[in-house]
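Lab notebook, bench 4. The sequencing result for the construct came back, and we need a structural model before the next group meeting so we can plan mutations. Quick request posted to the team channel:

Model the 3D structure of this chain.
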Amino acid sequence: MLKAVSKFTLQAAFLNKTNKENKFMKKQFFAIAAIGMASAGVLCAQSLYDIAPDESEKDSLPLTWTVGANIGLDDNPTPLFSALIGEDQSLYGQAYVGATLLNNQPTSTTAFGAQLGVIHYFDNLSILGNDVDDSSFTASLYLNHTERLSERLRVVSRNSFAYELEPDYSYGFQSDRAVGNYTRWFTDNSVGYRWSERLATYTGFRLSDLSYDDSSFSYRDLSTTSFSNSFRYQLSELTVGTFNYRYSESDGSSQVTDSTNHFYTLGLENRFSPRALGVVRAGIQDREVDGGTSGTSPFLEGTLRIKANEQLSYRAYARFGVEDYGRMLRSGLTTAVYSGTESLRLGFSGDYLVSQDLTLSVGLNYIDSTYDDLMRVAAPVGVQVPRSLNEELVNAYVGFGYKLNDSMTLSGRYNFEDHSSDNASRGYERNRISLGVSTQF
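Done. Here's the predicted structure in token form:
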């Protein structure tokens, strides 16, 4: 019996799919609809919520199409410039079409999703006399595949592409809302091998890229290459201990220097129940910055995913470390480049099925960022730039999804965002409210 249980838990360490009910999948869809124009990768997201082994449905799901439209009000469409030009507001409309597919076979699992959309602001937007695009197209796609070559060997590939307007803070690289669309993509590939009943390893590489359409924000462009290896040891029937190493190289824009990072962490993954999983990893981050300050600092990341019952499910994440993203700050005619950004990121999201037709959803992202060790500055005469600067962001939402009939859902969402900074010109508040309808077939 113990051997059977041990085999099951080791399979979980290799990203084996945990059994969930198709009914829960449908409930989750209504919560997603309440968010409005949700990313196509929500069902198989590889965000900070999902640092743990992937989980999905046991049964295959057929190709499903979703078509929807929303109308909303945004009281600050160009937030980072509101201190200079004042806050404005505009009605906006959204329309989108998406598709998802899950094919689960005895030796392989494939998950696919895609979405195309458009967002249009009805009022003309401008910044200091320069027009801002009133219409923005969006697109997202994910393709995840697991191939179980034998009982011991498997290959996992996770791939994502997004062309977006609004940031998804749970992906862990943005700390505010810029103007205009950006493109992000990654491909994450690894090989897992079970050496014994208790010991397994995962070895992989990841390529990722982030770039902005608006040349005013091109200094945030970032490409990263990572290599990793994880040793996994079965400590008990429900607990896996890990030792993880990751090496990454980040190439910044022409205005920001490159950097390399080494991460060494010890971790625990505990399955409290078939529907509850907690993961924590802690260790050190050894960092080198071209032309900047290098050093060693603590690193921590964790996630919690729980389906409490048939009605309530929630998840949370936390991460603390030094980030490469956004090391350059602009304010008016002043630019400053820092060696790194020490950031604490916290997130929570939950869904509650009030009835068979009504789902409520809530979410919160909190980011505390400290820009340390000023490397380079360009500022008008007499302007003082601090060697260290702190910023905080709070992003929260509440939403609902109401099933009008077997195929149509009414959704609504309110989103609040507050960004504060030691540099007052970078602070802003933003409120958005939207109402929409979608159909699934």
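The domain at 2-440 is CATH 2.40.160 (Porin).
Will bring this to the meeting.
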